[in-house]
Amino acid sequence: MLSVDVSNGLHEELEALALKNKARAIGVALHDLETGLRFSLRGDRWFHAASTIKVAVLLAVFRAADEGRYRLDDSLHVRNRFFSAADRAPFRLSQDRDATPELYAAIGRTAKISSLAHAMICGSSNLATNLLLELVGVEYSRAVLREAQVEGVELRRGVEDHGAHEQGINNEATADGLLSLLSAIRSDFLTTQSKGEVIRILLEQRFNSMIPAGLPPHATVAHKTGEISTACHDIGIVYLPEREPYITAILTEFDPDTEGRRETVAAISEAIYRSLLRTDQ
Amino acid sequence: MTTEFLRPIDGLHLAEEYRGLLRPGESEAGTDGAVHALPRFFYEIRSWEQAHEIRLAPHFTLAELMLVDRREARLLLSQFPHYVPCAILLLARFLEDFRREVDAPVFISANGAYRSPAHQIGGAKSIHAWGTAANIYRVGDTFLSDSRSIQKYRTIAASLGPAVFVRPFGREKGQTSDHLHIDLGYVRLTPRESSEAS
Asked: In total, how many domains does chain B have?
């Protein structure tokens, strides 16, 4: 396994980008499957996971299907009522705060597990996430992460669980951890069919203003973004036709209302790409 | 009412795999300790298309009253025939009365009407296993997700007869906060042409 020499400039370039764009912190992890090269800049720093945690839920959902707990074409009752990880108090999600408000039209009816998985990732649906997490369970999902040898991803609750947030119960992740999560997806942890389906879902991501924005048009990215008031992340597998893919996790933290957060992640993505392909603009 | 497709079946004559799930006529103690006999007579439904065609009341199809999710037993979820207790006719009749009172479409949630005794929610202890209960999550454009809406329609439902039970709004056991639960009690219906001799 190669290790990137700091002198190659990537480290300094990313630090400079963080400073220039007023990021409070960044954490970047990279694994190039072409060369075996690994890079980590504060890869062990913990961040609020925001919606990147949905990838952990996705892994658990497909693992449970592989284990025969259900079929992916089974249907689930779409119900907007969940129970807080803090005290089991019921809470509801706000349609206005959800990136996929259209799923709320299905409340009361059913949706297929596969459709919910797609909505959770491609549209970052909070409602789909909490339904699926309720289906598989937090403890099961954590066990799946352990089994997949993913360290650095702490899945503790569903999304928009304000009661849990007030008690400091949050989903957290490191760049190294999220990188290992994507690596687990690429490994033989899931069945071939499930792995293919998970990557296909990640490839159909609708929000493409971060990692993909820093890449040439011929790149395709299986990825998941995550944004809350202070965090702005993107993690993904970058496919380039001329070479093996690379996996990267880019986590950033800003003061609330700081502008240019996504652009910062895109710039980091671009810097990584240039570093790996030794291209200069 | 388009019910000509409905064919009553004595559950005791069903194949063993169905009897094991539907438990026709078996006694079951509720959470309060009271013992009730589970439904014995069912209508056999051969397909989802048929369930959609069968209109139990002017505004309610059978399909609306048997929609369940993966928490139902596999055999009763994805394969046909399905079986629903004959008392589902009474539930549909009541829902039609309710709809007339509220003068708006009434929506029953998934897992919100008939669930078999093998269903993971409540199982045989739930009155939903009698086919006489319904969870209404929406009336017209109103989602029943707050005290005001649930209380409003609870009052209307309760006014339709002393046999009607409606759960109050709340977040404790026996209360509801995102739908209106109504039920007609542990009613079992024996079709006229059927015999209760074992």
From this structure: 1
